[in-house]
Write a structure and sequence with these properties.
Protein name: NAD(P)/FAD-dependent oxidoreductase
Strand content: 25-35%
Structural class: alpha/beta
Domain FAD/NAD(P)-binding: 5-274
Number of domains: 2
Catalytic activity: [thioredoxin]-dithiol + NADP(+) = [thioredoxin]-disulfide + NADPH + H(+)
Pfam families: Pyr_redox_2
GO molecular function, one term: thioredoxin-disulfide reductase (NADPH) activity
Distance between the termini: 31 Å
Length: 301
Protein backbone atom coordinates (compact mmCIF):
# COMPACT_ATOMS: atom_id res chain seq x y z
CA UNK A 1 0.00 0.00 0.00
CA UNK A 2 1.55 3.25 -1.18
CA UNK A 3 1.66 6.13 1.29
CA UNK A 4 0.46 9.54 0.14
CA UNK A 5 1.67 12.70 1.78
CA UNK A 6 -1.89 13.78 2.53
CA UNK A 7 -5.29 12.12 2.44
CA UNK A 8 -8.29 14.43 2.25
CA UNK A 9 -11.76 13.16 3.15
CA UNK A 10 -14.38 15.32 1.50
CA UNK A 11 -14.31 16.86 -1.96
CA UNK A 12 -16.22 20.08 -1.39
CA UNK A 13 -14.80 23.63 -1.47
CA UNK A 14 -12.58 23.09 1.60
CA UNK A 15 -11.23 19.73 0.45
CA UNK A 16 -10.57 20.73 -3.14
CA UNK A 17 -9.01 24.02 -2.11
CA UNK A 18 -6.68 22.17 0.24
CA UNK A 19 -5.87 19.59 -2.42
CA UNK A 20 -5.01 22.31 -4.93
CA UNK A 21 -2.56 24.00 -2.55
CA UNK A 22 -0.92 20.69 -1.64
CA UNK A 23 -0.67 19.45 -5.23
CA UNK A 24 0.93 22.73 -6.27
CA UNK A 25 3.36 22.23 -3.39
CA UNK A 26 4.34 18.97 -5.10
CA UNK A 27 2.76 16.80 -2.44
CA UNK A 28 1.12 13.50 -3.27
CA UNK A 29 -2.50 13.99 -2.32
CA UNK A 30 -5.66 11.92 -2.66
CA UNK A 31 -9.17 13.26 -2.12
CA UNK A 32 -11.90 10.80 -1.20
CA UNK A 33 -15.31 12.25 -2.04
CA UNK A 34 -18.69 10.70 -1.17
CA UNK A 35 -20.50 13.04 -3.58
CA UNK A 36 -22.86 14.54 -1.00
CA UNK A 37 -22.33 18.33 -1.11
CA UNK A 38 -24.21 20.37 1.46
CA UNK A 39 -25.52 22.85 -1.11
CA UNK A 40 -26.65 20.23 -3.65
CA UNK A 41 -30.19 21.61 -3.63
CA UNK A 42 -29.13 25.17 -4.48
CA UNK A 43 -29.19 26.24 -8.11
CA UNK A 44 -26.53 28.90 -7.62
CA UNK A 45 -24.01 30.02 -5.01
CA UNK A 46 -23.28 33.62 -4.13
CA UNK A 47 -20.79 35.78 -2.27
CA UNK A 48 -17.72 34.13 -3.84
CA UNK A 49 -16.14 36.90 -5.89
CA UNK A 50 -15.47 35.96 -9.54
CA UNK A 51 -17.79 32.96 -9.01
CA UNK A 52 -20.99 34.72 -7.97
CA UNK A 53 -24.03 32.96 -9.41
CA UNK A 54 -22.13 29.84 -10.44
CA UNK A 55 -23.97 26.52 -9.98
CA UNK A 56 -22.32 24.62 -7.10
CA UNK A 57 -21.69 21.53 -9.20
CA UNK A 58 -19.77 23.60 -11.76
CA UNK A 59 -17.50 24.95 -9.02
CA UNK A 60 -16.71 21.40 -7.93
CA UNK A 61 -16.12 20.22 -11.51
CA UNK A 62 -13.73 23.11 -12.07
CA UNK A 63 -11.95 22.38 -8.80
CA UNK A 64 -11.50 18.69 -9.60
CA UNK A 65 -10.04 19.57 -12.99
CA UNK A 66 -7.57 21.98 -11.41
CA UNK A 67 -6.49 19.49 -8.75
CA UNK A 68 -5.96 16.73 -11.31
CA UNK A 69 -4.02 19.15 -13.48
CA UNK A 70 -1.33 19.29 -10.78
CA UNK A 71 -1.23 15.55 -10.24
CA UNK A 72 -3.75 15.29 -7.41
CA UNK A 73 -5.92 12.18 -7.24
CA UNK A 74 -9.67 12.16 -6.62
CA UNK A 75 -11.40 8.95 -5.60
CA UNK A 76 -15.17 8.62 -5.45
CA UNK A 77 -16.20 6.68 -2.39
CA UNK A 78 -17.09 6.67 1.28
CA UNK A 79 -14.59 6.19 4.08
CA UNK A 80 -15.96 3.67 6.56
CA UNK A 81 -13.02 3.47 8.93
CA UNK A 82 -9.97 5.51 9.91
CA UNK A 83 -7.18 3.82 11.88
CA UNK A 84 -4.04 5.00 13.63
CA UNK A 85 -1.31 5.75 11.17
CA UNK A 86 -3.93 7.36 8.92
CA UNK A 87 -5.06 4.21 7.16
CA UNK A 88 -8.47 4.66 5.59
CA UNK A 89 -10.82 1.88 4.56
CA UNK A 90 -13.36 2.68 1.84
CA UNK A 91 -16.81 1.13 1.47
CA UNK A 92 -15.60 -1.12 -1.35
CA UNK A 93 -12.70 -2.45 0.71
CA UNK A 94 -9.90 -0.34 -0.77
CA UNK A 95 -7.36 0.98 1.71
CA UNK A 96 -5.34 4.17 1.59
CA UNK A 97 -2.52 5.38 3.81
CA UNK A 98 -1.28 8.93 4.33
CA UNK A 99 1.27 10.82 6.39
CA UNK A 100 -1.29 13.48 7.26
CA UNK A 101 -5.09 13.65 7.22
CA UNK A 102 -7.36 16.57 6.33
CA UNK A 103 -11.07 16.04 7.04
CA UNK A 104 -13.56 18.28 5.25
CA UNK A 105 -16.70 16.15 5.46
CA UNK A 106 -19.09 19.00 6.21
CA UNK A 107 -22.35 19.08 8.13
CA UNK A 108 -25.94 17.94 7.80
CA UNK A 109 -28.71 20.54 8.05
CA UNK A 110 -31.60 19.06 10.03
CA UNK A 111 -34.83 20.94 9.28
CA UNK A 112 -37.94 21.23 11.45
CA UNK A 113 -40.49 18.50 10.84
CA UNK A 114 -42.81 20.55 8.66
CA UNK A 115 -44.14 18.78 5.56
CA UNK A 116 -42.89 20.31 2.33
CA UNK A 117 -39.91 22.25 3.74
CA UNK A 118 -37.22 19.72 2.86
CA UNK A 119 -38.36 19.59 -0.77
CA UNK A 120 -37.89 23.38 -1.07
CA UNK A 121 -34.56 23.47 0.82
CA UNK A 122 -31.96 25.32 -1.22
CA UNK A 123 -34.70 26.90 -3.32
CA UNK A 124 -37.25 29.15 -1.60
CA UNK A 125 -36.32 27.81 1.84
CA UNK A 126 -32.90 29.04 2.95
CA UNK A 127 -30.82 29.83 6.01
CA UNK A 128 -28.24 32.44 4.88
CA UNK A 129 -29.39 35.89 3.74
CA UNK A 130 -25.86 36.75 2.62
CA UNK A 131 -26.02 33.77 0.26
CA UNK A 132 -29.58 34.16 -1.00
CA UNK A 133 -31.11 37.38 0.32
CA UNK A 134 -30.53 39.36 -2.88
CA UNK A 135 -32.56 36.85 -4.89
CA UNK A 136 -35.66 37.46 -2.74
CA UNK A 137 -35.18 41.18 -2.12
CA UNK A 138 -38.40 43.13 -1.60
CA UNK A 139 -40.43 39.90 -1.57
CA UNK A 140 -42.67 38.49 1.17
CA UNK A 141 -40.40 36.60 3.55
CA UNK A 142 -41.14 34.50 6.63
CA UNK A 143 -38.49 33.71 9.23
CA UNK A 144 -39.27 30.66 11.35
CA UNK A 145 -38.36 30.76 15.03
CA UNK A 146 -36.47 27.49 15.10
CA UNK A 147 -33.50 28.41 17.32
CA UNK A 148 -32.20 30.98 19.82
CA UNK A 149 -30.56 32.73 16.87
CA UNK A 150 -33.78 33.14 14.90
CA UNK A 151 -34.48 36.68 16.10
CA UNK A 152 -31.00 37.72 14.96
CA UNK A 153 -31.65 35.97 11.65
CA UNK A 154 -34.91 37.88 11.19
CA UNK A 155 -33.12 41.16 11.91
CA UNK A 156 -30.63 40.31 9.18
CA UNK A 157 -33.25 39.27 6.64
CA UNK A 158 -35.04 42.61 7.16
CA UNK A 159 -32.07 44.23 5.42
CA UNK A 160 -33.21 42.68 2.12
CA UNK A 161 -36.95 43.22 2.35
CA UNK A 162 -39.41 45.46 4.22
CA UNK A 163 -41.94 42.60 4.24
CA UNK A 164 -40.62 40.15 6.83
CA UNK A 165 -42.78 38.21 9.30
CA UNK A 166 -41.49 36.21 12.25
CA UNK A 167 -43.41 32.99 12.93
CA UNK A 168 -42.91 30.91 16.07
CA UNK A 169 -45.07 28.72 18.33
CA UNK A 170 -44.65 31.31 21.08
CA UNK A 171 -44.18 35.03 20.54
CA UNK A 172 -40.79 36.34 21.72
CA UNK A 173 -40.79 38.63 24.73
CA UNK A 174 -38.38 41.00 26.43
CA UNK A 175 -35.34 42.09 24.45
CA UNK A 176 -36.12 39.75 21.56
CA UNK A 177 -39.56 41.31 21.12
CA UNK A 178 -38.03 44.78 21.30
CA UNK A 179 -35.46 43.92 18.65
CA UNK A 180 -38.10 42.65 16.24
CA UNK A 181 -40.21 45.74 16.85
CA UNK A 182 -37.21 47.98 16.23
CA UNK A 183 -36.77 46.35 12.83
CA UNK A 184 -40.47 46.62 12.00
CA UNK A 185 -40.99 42.86 11.94
CA UNK A 186 -44.49 41.62 12.89
CA UNK A 187 -44.84 38.37 14.85
CA UNK A 188 -47.29 35.53 14.28
CA UNK A 189 -47.52 33.11 17.20
CA UNK A 190 -48.46 29.78 15.67
CA UNK A 191 -47.27 26.33 14.78
CA UNK A 192 -46.78 25.68 11.06
CA UNK A 193 -48.61 22.71 9.56
CA UNK A 194 -47.03 22.58 6.12
CA UNK A 195 -45.45 24.47 3.27
CA UNK A 196 -47.92 25.42 0.54
CA UNK A 197 -46.60 24.84 -2.96
CA UNK A 198 -48.29 25.73 -6.23
CA UNK A 199 -46.87 25.13 -9.72
CA UNK A 200 -43.57 24.00 -8.17
CA UNK A 201 -43.24 27.22 -6.22
CA UNK A 202 -43.59 27.99 -2.52
CA UNK A 203 -46.54 30.34 -2.03
CA UNK A 204 -47.13 30.25 1.71
CA UNK A 205 -47.24 28.43 5.02
CA UNK A 206 -50.36 26.82 6.43
CA UNK A 207 -50.70 27.71 10.11
CA UNK A 208 -52.23 25.69 12.95
CA UNK A 209 -55.68 27.29 12.53
CA UNK A 210 -55.76 26.42 8.82
CA UNK A 211 -55.08 29.91 7.53
CA UNK A 212 -52.33 30.38 4.97
CA UNK A 213 -49.67 33.01 5.48
CA UNK A 214 -48.57 33.97 1.99
CA UNK A 215 -44.86 34.27 1.33
CA UNK A 216 -42.28 33.97 -1.41
CA UNK A 217 -39.40 32.69 0.73
CA UNK A 218 -38.69 31.19 4.13
CA UNK A 219 -35.55 31.54 6.19
CA UNK A 220 -34.82 29.28 9.13
CA UNK A 221 -31.98 28.13 11.34
CA UNK A 222 -31.52 24.36 10.95
CA UNK A 223 -29.91 22.13 13.53
CA UNK A 224 -26.34 21.40 12.47
CA UNK A 225 -25.03 17.86 12.82
CA UNK A 226 -21.36 17.55 11.90
CA UNK A 227 -20.25 14.61 9.79
CA UNK A 228 -17.35 14.12 12.16
CA UNK A 229 -17.53 10.42 12.97
CA UNK A 230 -14.06 9.77 11.54
CA UNK A 231 -12.59 12.63 13.57
CA UNK A 232 -14.13 11.42 16.81
CA UNK A 233 -13.07 7.84 16.03
CA UNK A 234 -9.50 9.11 15.86
CA UNK A 235 -9.92 10.77 19.26
CA UNK A 236 -10.23 14.42 18.26
CA UNK A 237 -11.38 16.59 21.13
CA UNK A 238 -14.79 18.25 21.02
CA UNK A 239 -15.49 21.84 22.00
CA UNK A 240 -18.31 23.13 24.20
CA UNK A 241 -20.42 23.64 21.07
CA UNK A 242 -20.25 19.92 20.29
CA UNK A 243 -18.05 20.36 17.24
CA UNK A 244 -14.50 19.10 16.90
CA UNK A 245 -12.02 21.66 18.20
CA UNK A 246 -9.58 23.03 15.64
CA UNK A 247 -7.31 26.05 15.81
CA UNK A 248 -7.33 28.81 13.19
CA UNK A 249 -5.18 26.65 10.90
CA UNK A 250 -7.47 23.62 11.20
CA UNK A 251 -5.15 21.64 13.48
CA UNK A 252 -7.07 19.31 15.82
CA UNK A 253 -6.02 17.82 19.14
CA UNK A 254 -4.70 14.69 17.38
CA UNK A 255 -1.23 15.15 15.86
CA UNK A 256 -1.31 14.95 12.09
CA UNK A 257 -5.07 15.49 11.78
CA UNK A 258 -6.55 18.70 10.42
CA UNK A 259 -10.18 19.64 9.85
CA UNK A 260 -11.54 22.46 7.73
CA UNK A 261 -14.81 23.83 6.40
CA UNK A 262 -18.30 23.22 7.74
CA UNK A 263 -17.34 20.11 9.72
CA UNK A 264 -15.82 22.47 12.31
CA UNK A 265 -17.38 25.81 11.25
CA UNK A 266 -20.95 25.06 10.13
CA UNK A 267 -21.92 28.70 9.50
CA UNK A 268 -19.14 29.26 6.97
CA UNK A 269 -20.06 30.16 3.40
CA UNK A 270 -18.42 28.52 0.38
CA UNK A 271 -15.70 31.14 0.15
CA UNK A 272 -14.90 30.72 3.85
CA UNK A 273 -14.68 26.95 3.54
CA UNK A 274 -12.34 27.27 0.57
CA UNK A 275 -10.12 29.67 2.50
CA UNK A 276 -10.02 27.31 5.50
CA UNK A 277 -8.98 24.43 3.27
CA UNK A 278 -6.19 26.51 1.77
CA UNK A 279 -4.90 27.54 5.20
CA UNK A 280 -4.97 23.95 6.50
CA UNK A 281 -3.09 22.73 3.43
CA UNK A 282 -0.29 25.26 3.88
CA UNK A 283 0.10 24.28 7.54
CA UNK A 284 0.10 20.58 6.68
CA UNK A 285 2.83 21.13 4.13
CA UNK A 286 4.89 23.05 6.72
CA UNK A 287 4.32 20.27 9.25
CA UNK A 288 5.57 17.65 6.80
CA UNK A 289 8.67 19.72 6.13
CA UNK A 290 9.39 19.94 9.86
CA UNK A 291 9.06 16.18 10.15
CA UNK A 292 11.44 15.61 7.24
CA UNK A 293 13.98 17.98 8.77
CA UNK A 294 13.72 16.28 12.17
CA UNK A 295 14.22 12.83 10.62
CA UNK A 296 17.28 14.03 8.72
CA UNK A 297 18.81 15.67 11.79
CA UNK A 298 18.22 12.56 13.89
CA UNK A 299 19.81 10.34 11.27
CA UNK A 300 22.89 12.54 10.96
CA UNK A 301 23.41 13.02 14.71
Amino acid sequence: MDTRDVLIIGGGPAGLSGALVLARARRTVTVVDAGEPRNAGAGHMHGFFTRDGMPPERLLETGRTEVRGYGGEIVEGTVTRAEEGFVLTLAGGARLKGRRLLVTTGVTDVLPDIPGLRERWGREVQMCPYCHGWEVRDRKIVVLGTSPNSVHQASLVRQWSPDVTFVAPKAPDGEDAARLDARGIPVVASEVRRAVVEDDRLTGLELADGTVLGCDAVFLAPTWVAKDGLLTDLGCELGEDGFVKADQTGRTSVPGVWAAGNVVAPAGQVVMAAAAGSMAAAMINADLIEEDVAVHLAASA
